[in-house]
Specification:
This protein has 150 residues and is mainly beta. The chain is built from 1 helix and 8 strands. Strand 4 and strand 5 form a beta hairpin.
Length: 150
Amino acid sequence: MLKGLVRHPGRAPLVSFLPPLLTSFWIPAHWTLVGATAVKYAASQKAVFVRRRQGPVGVFVGGFQKSAVAGLDYNYRIGSVVLGLGGAYLTHTTFVNGTHWNFELRLAYRFTPRLEALWTHFSNCKQICGFDRSGPNLGWEFLGIGYRFP
């Protein structure tokens, strides 16, 4: 009779993960619209990103040079500085990034609660980590301005 009430060791990670996931729905979400330009290799390529951050977790979609990007990142905020690290999927490969799956690194500085400047980098980490050797990795680098909606 008590068998169903006993916590099974194999289920502990799932059970411990659920409370933070469920409580994140009550954390206010913020939307940010970003206009950016590439600054390395494919300079003058324009990009647009829409980001949604809820607590420290953010999701983003965007587009640049015939490619769409979508990803998920975790954000660390220290005062006005925000550091984000996550993963991204690019729909097209090019001479800059030869793989679809990439890491995403983002650094932002908030001038006001609504206005921020940011640098975003997409890379398959080939040169530093040696994870993916299937295509070129020059890395996309974007500088932009973001506006946070309430």
